[in-house]
Amino acid sequence: MTKLLYVEEHCTCFNYEHVGSGSIEVMKLAKDTLLHVIAKHHKILFIRKGSISYTLDNSDQNMLTAGKMTLIPSDTNFHGQALEDIESIIIRIPVEEQLCDTYSFENLLHEEKENESQPPKEYVLPINDKVDKFLSFMQECTEDGLRCAYYFQIKQKELFFLLRAYYHKEDLYNFFYPLLTSDISFSQFMIRNRNKVKTVKELAKLSNYSLSGFQKRFKKVFGISAHQWLNEQRSKSILHDINNSAKALKEISRSYGFSSQSYFNDFCKMNFGTTPGQLRRKKNGQEAVTD
């Protein structure tokens, strides 16, 4: 079997993506292992072997078996448990990604059926033979230690071209439904910049909108007010830092502008039902966590 050459040069390159932080991740989990994904980016989870039960936010319990893939939309919480030993791959969807140079995600909006009144409840597709070969090669490369960000960008584009070429448009519409807002460029701009601002006024200014015009367009695209959305993003970011970072709780409290630990505790009780210390202690046993 061909081995990766010049390993030291590769691993010390500034393009090298460390395990757990890459745009393409291979994950092997033992039976009963928990998988918790707090998605800061849209991602696709591919199950190559085994099966996993899961929920997305407050959805009903679902099961993903070998040979299937599911979309994990950004700003959702994926909670899963391996029902048997599994091999999986998670691939991040770049914000500006397209299915190909001449067919964007916006084009999929035209595939909605006229009689379609309810959005899909789950975002699952079978892994066909073309995509399976792609995944097999990616697994081999990453297990060899080939984790170049530049290379991953090329492979992400290849994946979306395969989806464009070998899946029906109607199936892709159902699969990528959460990405297909009435204004994708606007929603992607909000997602990219949500952590750069603290108020709706700041976000409107960053978007070059008047406050009233921004609020109107935001409500049309997202279905909720910008204020409510920013609060939800702040809550999710705080929960992510509590559960997945090594930061001290006092440091997290300060970084989000809480004037005292008491106010931070009250915020967590109101939004998560318990204190930040209890949230952190709750994480025990075998659990794989990624964002």
How is this structure best described in words?
By secondary structure, this protein is an alpha+beta fold. The chain folds into two domains: 7-179, Jelly Rolls; 184-290, Arc Repressor Mutant, subunit A, CATH 1.10.10.60. The protein has eleven helices and ten strands. It has helices at residues 7-11, 129-144, 149-166, 169-175, 184-193, 200-206, 211-222, 226-244, 249-255, 261-272, 276-282; strands spanning 24-29, 34-38, 43-49, 51-56, 62-65, 68-72, 77-82, 86-92, 124-126, 287-290.
Outline of the structure:
With 291 residues, the protein is α+β, with helices and mostly antiparallel strands. It has 11 helices and 10 strands.
Please write out the topology.
Elements: H1 7-11, E1 24-29, E2 34-38, E3 43-49, E4 51-56, E5 62-65, E6 68-72, E7 77-82, E8 86-92, E9 124-126, H2 129-144, H3 149-166, H4 169-175, H5 184-193, H6 200-206, H7 211-222, H8 226-244, H9 249-255, H10 261-272, H11 276-282, E10 287-290
- How do the SSEs run, as a string of H and E? HEEEEEEEEEHHHHHHHHHHE
Number of strands: 10
Distance between the termini: 33 Å
**For the largest beta sheet, what order do the strands appear in spatially?**
1-8-3-6-9
Shape category: globular
Keywords for this entry:
291 residues; alpha+beta; Jelly Rolls; Arc Repressor Mutant, subunit A; five-stranded mixed beta sheet; 11 helices; 41% helix; 18% strand; disordered C terminus
